[in-house]
Design goal:
Layout lengths: L3 H17 L2 H4 L10 H23 L1 H21 L6 H22 L2 H22 L20 H15 L5 H18 L2 H24 L9 H21 L1 H31 L5 H18 L1 H18 L7 H6 L5 H9 L5 H9 L11 H12 L7 H18 L6 H28 L9 H20 L1 H5 L13
C-alpha cells in the first residue's frame, strides 16, 4: 500500500502524456497489426488503472466523498446509454465515462494540483508542437494549411489547447501567466479554428479585466509587471507567424480563406437555406432533413461555418421528430451534429440533455474565484461547436484534471509529497516513447510514401525532450504548491 499514491499519480500523469499530448493516438496505427505485445500492455494498464481506482475508493472515505459528484455523473451517463442496444459508438462512450471516473479518483487521491500544473505544461508543449507543425507544408495535419500538432485534426487540437489552458490557468504561477497565455493562444491561432479562437479571446479578455481590477483594488505592494519579457515574447511569436506565412504558402492561403469566410457566413447560410427551400416538394420534416443532407455535402467547400449551421439544424430536426428515448449513439454520431448537446438529444431524446448539462455543472459548482471560471466557458464553447468531447480522451484529460483540482481546492486537500515526485518520471519517459514511435514510422515508411518530413520529427523530439528536462529539473516549482498564489483561492 506504500506505493499506492505514487502509482495513482504516475497513472494520472501517464494519461496526460498519452492523451493530452496525443502520443498514443498519433502512433495508434502502429499497433493495429500487433496482436501479441500491444494488447497485453494496453489492457494491462487499464486493469491497473481500474484496480488502483477501486482500492482507493474502498480504503479512503475522503476520496469517495470528494469524487462523488463526478462518479454520480459518470454512472448516470452509463445508465442513460443502456436505454438502447450497445453499439460501437456507445462502447466508446462507456469507456470514456470510465476514463473520466478513474482519472478523477486517481488525481484527487494523489496530487490534484501537481497533476493540473503538469497538464498546464502539456498544454504549452502542445502549442509549441503546433507552431512547429505550421512551418511545413506537409506536416502532421489532415487539413491542408492548418496546424494540428500530434492531434492530426486541427479543430481537436484547438479545443485541447483551449481546455488545457482554461482548466489549469489558475494554478499557473503569476510570473508565468503571460507567457503561458501568449504561447497557448498563438497555438490556437495557427490551428485556424475560428470559434475556438474567438472563445479564447473573450475568455482571456474577461480574465485580464478581473486581474486588472484586482490589481487596482489591492491595498498592498503590487508585483512588478514584466513588460520587457512580455514584449519580447510577443515580438518573437509575431515573427514566428510571419515566417510561417512566408515559408508555408498553404498556411497563408488557408489563413486568408478562413478569416474571409467569417464575414461571408450570414450570406452563405441564407443562400443555403434558400436553396433547400426551393428544392422542397413538401414541408415534411423527413424531406427537409433529406434536402439539408444533400446541401451539406457540398456546403463545406463553400463555407465550413455555414455547413456546421446546416448540420446543427438537421440534428435539431432529427431530435424533434425522433422517438421519446432517441435513436441511439450510432445514429446520433452519424448525424454529425457538431454540438454535444444535440448529440445526446438525438441519441437519448429528452433524457439526453441531462448528460452534457451535468458535465457542464461539474465545471462550475466548485468555482471559488472569477479566475476559475474559464474552464466552464471553454467547456461550453467546445460543447456548442463540436461533438468530439465525449469520445476524445485528449479533451477529457485536461477537463477532468481541472475538475479534480477545483474539488480538491474546495475541500482544502493538499498534494501528497510522495505522489508528486512520481510525476516527473512519467515526463522523463515521453521522449523515449516519441522516438520509439518515430523510429517505427520511419522503418515501415518507404521513400515513395508521403508524410511529415524528418526535420519536423526531429524538432518535435527536441521540444518534448526540453519539456521533459524542464519538468525534471524544476518539478518542485512546477508541480508543487507555491506561496505566491493570489488570495481568494481557498488554499489551506
Amino acid at each position: 500500500m506504500k506505493m499506492l499514491l505514487p502509482t495513482a499519480a504516475a497513472l494520472g500523469s501517464l494519461f496526460v502524456v498519452a492523451f493530452q499530448l496525443q502520443l498514443l493516438p498519433f502512433f495508434a496505427h502502429l499497433f493495429v497489426e500487433d496482436r501479441l505485445v500491444w494488447p497485453v500492455i494496453f489492457y494491462g494498464v487499464w486493469a491497473c488503472v481500474i484496480g488502483v481506482t477501486l482500492v482507493l475508493l474502498v480504503l479512503h472515505g475522503s476520496v469517495r466523498r470528494q469524487s462523488l459528484p463526478v462518479l454520480a455523473v459518470c454512472a448516470s451517463a452509463m445508465l442513460v446509454t443502456l436505454i438502447h442496444p450497445i453499439d460501437g459508438v456507445a462502447k466508446n462512450f462507456l469507456v470514456a465515462a470510465t476514463f473520466v471516473a478513474c482519472v478523477s479518483v486517481l488525481a484527487i487521491a494523489s496530487a490534484p494540483f501537481a497533476l493540473l500544473r503538469f497538464s498546464a505544461t502539456a498544454a504549452v508543449l502542445s502549442a509549441v508542437i503546433c507552431l512547429l507543425d505550421i512551418l511545413f507544408s506537409h506536416g502532421f495535419t489532415n487539413t491542408v494549411g492548418r496546424a494540428a500538432g500530434l492531434s492530426i485534426n486541427a479543430n481537436v487540437a484547438a479545443a485541447g489547447l483551449l481546455l488545457g489552458a482554461a482548466s489549469s490557468f489558475w494554478t499557473v504561477p503569476p510570473r508565468w501567466r503571460s507567457p503561458f497565455l501568449l504561447i497557448v493562444g498563438t497555438g490556437i491561432l495557427v490551428t485556424l479554428s475560428r470559434s475556438t479562437l474567438l472563445a479564447a479571446i473573450l475568455i482571456g479578455s474577461g480574465i485580464a479585466a478581473d486581474l486588472i481590477w484586482m490589481r487596482i483594488r489591492s491595498p498592498g505592494p503590487r508585483s512588478r509587471i514584466r513588460w520587457l519579457h512580455t514584449g519580447a515574447l510577443i515580438l518573437a511569436l509575431a515573427g514566428w507567424i510571419a515566417a510561417a506565412l512566408f515559408s508555408n504558402d498553404r498556411f497563408s492561403v488557408a489563413a486568408r480563406s478562413s478569416f474571409l469566410q467569417i464575414g461571408a457566413v450570414p450570406t452563405a447560410f441564407a443562400e443555403a437555406r434558400q436553396a433547400i427551400a426551393d428544392s422542397l416538394r413538401t414541408n415534411a420534416a423527413s424531406e427537409i432533413i433529406r434536402e439539408i443532407t444533400r446541401r451539406a455535402e457540398n456546403e463545406g467547400d463553400i463555407n465550413s461555418i455555414s455547413a456546421r449551421g446546416l448540420l446543427m439544424e438537421r440534428a435539431w430536426l432529427i431530435y424533434r421528430t425522433g422517438p421519446f428515448f432517441g435513436r441511439g449513439m450510432a445514429a446520433a454520431h452519424a448525424a454529425q451534429p457538431h454540438n454535444t448537446f444535440l448529440l445526446f438529444a438525438v441519441a437519448f431524446g429528452h433524457l439526453g440533455w441531462i448528460v452534457p448539462l451535468a458535465l457542464l455543472g461539474l465545471t462550475v459548482y466548485p468555482v471559488r474565484s472569477v479566475q476559475q471560471l474559464p474552464m466552464f466557458f471553454a467547456t461550453f464553447t467546445v460543447m456548442m461547436t463540436s461533438h468530439d468531447l465525449p469520445f476524445t480522451f485528449g479533451l477529457l484529460a485536461p477537463l477532468i484534471l481541472g475538475i479534480a483540482g477545483l474539488n480538491a481546492q474546495r475541500c482544502r486537500v493538499n498534494d501528497k509529497p510522495e505522489a508528486v515526485a512520481a510525476i516527473r518520471y512519467v515526463a522523463a519517459a515521453a521522449p523515449v516513447v516519441f522516438v520509439t514511435g518515430v523510429f517505427s514510422i520511419l522503418t515501415i515508411r518507404s521513400s515513395s510514401m508521403a508524410g511529415p518530413p524528418n526535420l519536423l520529427f526531429f524538432l518535435v523530439f527536441c521540444a518534448i525532450t526540453l519539456w521533459s528536462l524542464g519538468v525534471w529539473r524544476w518539478y518542485r516549482e512546477l508541480l508543487q504548491r507555491e506561496h505566491d498564489l493570489p488570495r481568494g483561492y481557498g488554499w489551506a
